[in-house]
């Protein structure tokens, strides 16, 4: 008896329609928000703020969504308790690392049908998600570079056998660019202009803000 509003190949308009249907489904009223990326929370605040009178709390599982909750809290607009699941040990050390280690390969293979042995790949970010991506691609025989602004994570990448670089240093030569930072504008228009033809660009984070398109 669980209603699901989702399908493969959704447009952005479809995506927001599905979220709206989750809020507006006939015959029920939510009392909790279980969110990934903060999109549902954002939509309710934007379109249906009165619903929060019956919401007891928000559970958020992604870096992007947690950032959005902190922004709401800082602005004094977070009117219900919110739980940061993303920073839990089980989420960080298992889902972010091991699940991403498998899903990056599944996603790339399904969408590109490309052989990655010998390909030059740059992974932006060496948190748990980045670690999983790097391990998976290295196991396939890819030549993996890492960009990282945190000195401890950068040292971890070095100790794991990856060359730590600036994105601008390798952008002309790599075959694949993967963002795993939870930040915005990691890959800029300038980077896109300098990439080789047919370079594969993908994002392992939640939102599309890491790549400036």
Furnish the topology, listing elements before pairings.
Blueprint: H1 12-24, E1 33-35, H2 39-47, E2 58-60, H3 63-74, E3 82-84, H4 89-112, E4 120-124, H5 128-139, E5 143-147, H6 151-159, E6 163-164, H7 167-170, E7 176-179, H8 189-194, E8 200-203
Parallel strand pairs: 1-2, 2-3, 4-5, 4-7, 5-6, 7-8
Helix pairs in contact: 1-2, 4-5
Distance between the termini: 39 Å
The overall strand count is: 8
Count of individual helical segments: 8
Biggest β-sheet strands, sense, barrel: 5 strands, parallel
CATH superfamily of the largest domain: NAD(P)-binding Rossmann-like Domain
Q: Which CATH top level class of the largest domain fits? A: Alpha Beta
Low-confidence stretches: none
**Basic shape:** elongated
Number of domains: 2
Estimated helix fraction: 40-55%
What is the chain-wise order of helices and strands? HEHEHEHEHEHEHEHE
């Amino acid at each position: 008896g669980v209603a699901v509003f989702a399908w493969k190949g959704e447009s952005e308009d479809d995506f927001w329609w599905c979220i709206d249907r989750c809020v507006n489904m006939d015959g029920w009223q939510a009392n909790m928000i279980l969110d990934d990326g903060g999109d549902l929370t954002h939509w309710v605040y934007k379109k249906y703020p009165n619903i929060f009178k019956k919401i007891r709390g928000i559970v958020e599982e992604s870096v992007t969504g947690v950032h959005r909750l902190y922004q709401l809290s800082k602005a004094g607009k977070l009117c219900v308790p919110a739980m940061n699941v993303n920073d839990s040990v089980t989420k960080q050390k298992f889902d972010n690392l091991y699940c991403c280690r498998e899903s990056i390969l599944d996603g790339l293979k399904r969408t590109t049908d490309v052989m990655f042995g010998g390909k030059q790949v740059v992974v932006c970010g060496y948190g748990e998600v980045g670690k999983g991506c790097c391990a998976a691609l290295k196991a396939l025989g890819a030549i993996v570079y890492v960009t990282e602004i945190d000195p401890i994570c950068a040292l971890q990448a070095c100790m794991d056998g990856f060359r730590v670089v600036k994105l601008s240093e390798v952008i002309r030569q790599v075959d694949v660019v993967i963002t795993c930072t939870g930040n915005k504008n990691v890959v800029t228009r300038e980077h896109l202009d300098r990439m080789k033809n047919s370079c594969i660009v993908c994002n392992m984070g939640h939102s599309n803000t890491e790549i400036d398109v």
